[in-house]
Amino acid sequence: MVMDVTALAHPTPRMSPVDPDAELVAAARARPGEFLALYDRYFTRVLGYVRVRIRNPTICEDLTSQVFVTALEQLARFRGEGSFAGWLFQIARNAVRDSLRVRPGEELAERPALGPTPEELLLEGEQTEELRRLIRQLRPEQQHLLALRYGAELPYEEIGAMLGAAPATVRVRMHRILEELRRRYPHDNE
Amino acid sequence: MTTNDDSNLQVVERDLRALAEPRSGDDLIRLAVREQLAAKLCPRPRRRLSLRIVFRSATVAAAAAALAVVALVATNGTGGTSSADAAIIHHVLREVSPPAHKILHVEVVGMQNGMTVVGETWEQTSPPYAFRGLKGAVGQQGEFAVNGTTSFSYDPRTNTIYASPSSSPPTFADPLLQVRQELARGQAQDVGTAMIGGTPLYKINLPHGLVGYFDESNYLPRYLDDPQSDGTVLRLRVAAYEYLPMTRANRALLSIAAQHPGARLDTSRSAGVATK
Fold first, then answer.
1. CA of A60, closest CA in chain B: separation in Å?
2. Cβ–Cβ of B51/A61 closer than 8 Å?
3. Rounded to 5 degrees, what are φ and ψ at B116?
4. Mutating which of B17, B19, B269 best tests the A interface, going by the most A Cβ atoms within 10 A?
5. What is the chain B residue with the closest CA to A149?
6. What count of other Cβ atoms lies within 10 Å of the Cβ of residue B9?
7. CB of B239 within 8 Å of any CB in chain A?
8. Which of A13, B37, B219, B229 is least enclosed, having the fewest CB within 10 Å?
9. Strand, coil or helix: what is A107?
C-alpha cells in the first residue's frame, strides 16, 4: 500500500495538552520521516503488547509491523482527542482481534514457522501454556488491559488516560483480573 | 488476603511480564520494520517487499531446520517412528546442530509476488553471537548487523552505516534447547521422500504447516515450505547452509563496516535508513 503523502501533510492536529507524544506527532505530520521517532519509542511496547495476546512469534512480528504501517498510513486521521499511545494501542488491539478472527485459535498455535528462538521456546513451557489458556478465557477488554500493563508496561496513569478512566479505577480492574488469574493459576511455590 | 496470596499474585505478574520479555532477535525485527517504514516514507520506483519475506526466514532458517528435525525425533514416542526414521533423524540433527566457534552461513531464496527474494545470514555460533544479514529482492536488499553490543543498518543510497546500542544481548538459537523443548512436544510427521527439481528429499511435516525437506545424501536442509497468513505457501530454497571457520576473512562477513569500508558511520540516530 502506498502511503498517502498528502494526507500526512494535513495540519491542525488537536493534541491533548498532556500527551507526551504531542511534539513528535506534530513533527511527524510536518515531516513524515519523523514518524520513525515515534516508532522507536513504541516498538518494544507494541511488540510486548502483542506477545501477551498472541503466542505465535511469527504472527507477533507481522502484527507489530502491521500496527506501525497502519499508524503511519493513518496518522492524518489521528485527531488528537486522546493520546497517541491510546490511538496506537487501539490499532494494536484491532490488529490482534482481526488476526484471531482470521485464524481462530492461532494464539495457541505451536507452528514453529521460521522464527522461534530458544528463549521463546523456553517461555512456552507448561506453566506458560496454562497462563495463556487462562488469559484467553478473559474478556477481550481484560486481555487488552493485561497486555497494556504487562506487555507494553504502561503505567496506570497512562492506561487510565487511554481508557478514559481514573488510574485508581484501572488499578482496581487490574487487581480483579490478577485475582481471577491467581485463583486458577498453578504456583510452584504452593 | 494472605501473604501467600500476595506471593502468588507476584508470580502471576512475573509470568505475565515473561510473556513479553525482549528476545534475542528483537533488534533485527526492529531494524527490519524500521526499514520497511522508511521505505514507505521514501518510496523507491521499484516495488518494495513485505517484511515477512525472507528476512525472518534467513535469520532463523537454521533454527527452523533444527525444529523440523527435533520435532520429528519426538514422534518416536507417539507415532511409532521406525528405526530407519530414527537414523535419518540422527543424521539430520547432527548436520543442523551448529558446532561452537564457527560462523553459520545460511542463504534462502524464494519467489514472492513474482519477484525473487533472497535472505542471507552469517552468525557466530559462540558468544558474542555477532550477526549480519541481508534480505529482500535482489538489488534491493536491506542489510543489518549486530556485534554483541551495537546494532547496525546500512543505507546504500547514502553509503551510511547507522549504529545504535542493542537493546538486548544476542544469543544463538541453541539447537539443544530446541531439542529439549521439541522432544517434550513431538508432533512432527515423517512423510517419506518428496521429489523437488528431480532430487529426492526427506520430507518432514511439522505442526501447523511448516514442511522441511532434507538432502538424502548429506541430510542438510534443502527446502522449507512456510505457509503464509493469506493461505499461500512460500517455498524457500536453502541455497547455502554451512559452518565457516573463524578466519579473519570470515569474521569480516559478520561486519557491515568490513563489507562497506568506505561507508560513513552515523551514530547520531538510533538506527535505520535515511528518510530524505
1. 11
2. yes
3. -85, 125
4. B19
5. B17
6. 18
7. no
8. B229
9. helix
Contact A61 B56 (CB under 8 A): yes
Average pLDDT, chain A: 78
Alpha carbon dihedral B199, B201, B205, B209, in 10-degree steps, equals -30
Instruction: Catalogue the E-assigned strands of A63-185.
Output: none
Contacts by residues B29-32 (CB-CB < 8 Å, ≥ 24 positions apart):
B29/A47, B29/A61, B29/A64, B30/A43, B30/A44, B30/B151, B30/B167, B30/B271, B31/B142, B31/B144, B31/B151, B31/B153, B31/B271, B31/B272, B32/A65, B32/B135, B32/B142, B32/B144
C-beta separation of B99 from B64 below 8 A: no
* B177·A190 Cβ contact <8 A: no
- Residue carrying C-alpha cell 543505507: B155
Per-residue pLDDT at B58: 35
Which one-letter amino acid corresponds to residue B86?
A
B133 contacts in A (CB within 8 Å)?
none
| Alpha-carbon span B41 to A108, nearest angstrom | 35
Q: Tell me whether A30 touches chain B (CB under 8 Å).
A: no
Which of A117, A124, A138 to substitute to test the interface with B, most B CBs within 10 Å?
A: A117
Q: For B18-57, what is each residue's pLDDT tens digit?
A: 999 887 667 777 877 887 788 777 654 433 333 343 343 3
Give the max Cα distance, chain B.
68
User: How many whole angstroms separate alpha carbon A28 and alpha carbon A24?
Assistant: 6
Question: Starting from the edge strand earliest in sequence, which strands make up the sheet with B160-165, in order?
Answer: B189-196, B199-205, B211-215, B221-227, B233-245, B102-112, B115-124, B131-137, B142-146, B150-155, B160-165, B264-266
| Contact across the interface for A146 and B16, Cβ inside 8 Å | yes
> Given an 8 Å threshold on Cβ–Cβ distance, is A187 in contact with B22?
no
Q: Do A123 and B43 touch (CB under 8 A)?
A: no
Look at A151 and B51; give whichever has higher pLDDT. Answer: A151
ipTM of the complex: 0.77
